[in-house]
Amino acid sequence: MRTVFRSLADAAATDDFGPCALTIGNFDGVHLGHRTLLKQTERIAAMHGWRTAVLTFDPHPTAVVAPERAPQMLCSMQERLRLLENAGAERIMVLPFTQQIALMSPEAFVRQVVIESLGGHAVIVGQNFRFGHKQKGTPDVLAELGQRFGLETHFLAPVAIRGEVVSSSAIRRHLAAGNVSRAARLLGRCFSLEGEIVSGRGIGSTQTVPTLNLQPGSEIMPGNGVYISAAEDLENGRRWQSITNVGTRPTFDGHGVTIETFLLSPFDGRTPERIRLEFHRFVREERKFADAQALKSQIFKDVTRAKSYWRRLEKLQPANVGLA
User: Fold this and answer.
1) Spatial distance between the Cα atoms of 272 and 232, rounded to a whole number of angstroms
2) Contact at 8 Å (CB) between 215 and 266?
3) How far from 100 is each of 62, 88, 134, 197, CA to CA, in Å?
4) Which domain holds residue 31?
5) Among candidates 236, 242, 238, which has minimal Cα distance to 214?
6) At what angle are helices 180-187 and 168-176 packed, to 10 degrees?
7) Does residue 240 sit in the same domain as residue 296?
8) Among 23, 169, 172, 272, which is least packed by CB within 10 angstroms?
9) Are residues 121 and 196 both part of a single domain?
């Protein structure tokens, strides 16, 4: 069971964070590269009887030091914490990233944050890890500081999948292009959005097909288009195969991006209040149709394609699908 801390003072005061093997990073999306770091951290912690710990930041450091370059986040902090726990983290420090933290020298960061506050006995990071004021903390600097302070340091090579290095920025590029399948390959799971179900304009229920309208909690969304998807009720775990449109509803001269999901099977009980929406496969680009009837006809074609996808998937891995 994870324990989350929101300040260095709390971690130091409870004496419950360390001794630990600590991995450090933004962990946006908790992709396969991050999970490799967690696995190595867990292995080192087990060897010494330490805790498996994570230090992450909120907001993203770039939002403080160069806000014009701040990336859109792949998942909310709540989702990040859930994924980190699933990957083996026992202790998680969500450090508020402030100007004061940004100005810390590499030496001060290692001594005050890693060792004194968090009880770090080993640090596990990627070979491209940078830290401290103006990112002066390189792997070589961290290794030298580790020797000085008696801190184990481990540096992992980048993880590559089919010749592509796994990174949050690469995943963002694939999502922007609508390539959710390739994003899933780097994530090690389908990209998903979580959020509340909100009221739409009522067009679906009266002119095309009824949909669930999602208000996502994360900052990034897949590029506009139609996707094969799966929806999960976050309250009780009900799951449905579905098809989702991300876009501006050009047939109805819509404004602003919406996320509308049509379930491939009916659900019993009340409409879910919060769902997790998984994006499995790109179907087609969003486009403007002559009228609502033409759009409705296309939606049913999209549904047929989605049902075919799920049938094929169930034949390949029946034990892992389990959807209505």
Assistant:
1) 9
2) no
3) 14, 30, 13, 38
4) 3-161
5) 242
6) 160
7) yes
8) 169
9) no
Cα 203 to its chain centre, rounded Å, is 31
Tell me the CATH number at 194. 2.40.30.30
Lowest average pLDDT, out of 155-169, 247-261, 264-278, goes to: 247-261
pLDDT, position 250: 57
Q: Which two tokens stand for residue 212?
A: 């669930």
- Residues 6 or more apart whose Cβ sits within 8 Å of residue 306: 228, 241, 242, 243, 264, 283
**Comparing C-alpha atoms, which of 132, 133, 114 is closest to residue 122?**
114
pLDDT at 5: 96
Distance, CA of 205 to CA of 140 (rounded, Å): 61
Distance CA(51)–CA(290), nearest Å, equals: 61
Q: How far is CA 279 from CA 51, 175, 191, 315, 320, in A?
A: 34, 10, 6, 20, 16
Dump pLDDT digits (tens) for 125-160: 999 999 999 999 999 999 999 999 999 999 999 999
Residue 197 amino acid letter: I
Query: What distance in Å separates the CA atoms of residue 197 and residue 213, rounded to the nearest whole number?
Result: 5
Tell me the CATH number at 38: 3.40.50.620
- Same domain for 109 and 248? no
Residues 59 and 197 in one domain: no
Residue linked to tokens 């130091």: 12
As a whole number of angstroms, the distance between CA 234 and CA 224 comes to: 25
